[in-house]
Amino acid sequence: MTPRRTIAHEVSAEGIALHVGTAVRLTLSPAAAGSGVVFRRNDLGGAEVAARYDAVTQTNLGTMIAAGEAQVGVIEHLMAAAAGAEIDDLVVSLDGPEPPILDGDALSYLALFDQAGTVEQPMARSAIQVLRAVEVSHQEARAALLPAPTLSFEMEIEFRSAAIGRQCFGFAFSPAAFRREIAPARTFGDVGELETLKKMNRGRGASLANTLAIEGDRVLNAALMRFPDEFVRHKLLDAIGDMALAGAPLLARFEGVRSGHALNNALLRKLFSEPANYRILTAG
Questions:
Q1: Same-domain status, 90 and 201
Q2: Residues spanned by the domain of 204
Q3: Which of 140, 46, 106 shows the shortest CA–CA distance to 244?
Q4: Is 9 a catalytic residue?
Q5: pTM: predicted TM-score of the whole model, two decimal places
Q6: Is the same domain home to 135 and 245?
Q7: Which end of the chain has fewer CB atoms within 10 angstroms, the N or the C?
Q8: pLDDT tens digits, one per residue of 139-198
Q9: ∠161-163-168 over CA atoms, to 5°?
Q10: Choosing from 19, 77, 234, 261, which is the catalytic residue?
């Protein structure tokens, strides 16, 4: 097994939170070997929440984790970036309820990790080997983890809007492939739903600078698009972030059809519900 990794130096950024729409300061700090990724709410006296699938309490328009009264929402983009950079141990400090949305992608977080640098830890990485196929579904959506020697992802989506339609994308996971094929993909949303969301105190930080805006059959800010199939790539970005909550890298093939945060979390809960489904691989 390769050594665990953390960042070499503390790094900070400020930006607008996607849902609450307020400014948030984010600080990424090195963490002790074996501690995993931990979110710290500085505005709540330093309360901490471990970034794990079993800490997920809400999956509507983003993945939220909680411990007691401390909650942190929309963690999937940052978690995807941490997985893409192969960072195992990290402290994420916030003075608000969400990380800043930045550019609505994972590339913005990768830039922070690049700025911080990485160092190897005095502990070997573990991996979670999927031994039996696990699948969850809801109506026309499904998600599955299949036994495989290495990690790979495949996603299929379909939307009524001709701006999206049916899109499929798959790739074999590696830091280079993630950075090139997935990390730049921005989040997206329907303009017609935005006012309703704002009345629910959601989506207040969404803008034409950080979110691909769908209106009918067109993308209002199409000049921001980095891929012709950016929508399915972003859905894969979300899935990578959600799978990173397993607590260690997976050795499996992820397959999703219209899968979102709720199914992704249900998939991990089903995987870990039966010890025969998986095996923890460690050095030695």
A1: no
A2: 127-281
A3: 106
A4: no
A5: 0.96
A6: yes
A7: C
A8: 999 999 999 999 999 999 999 999 999 999 999 999 999 999 999 999 999 988 877 777
A9: 95
A10: 261
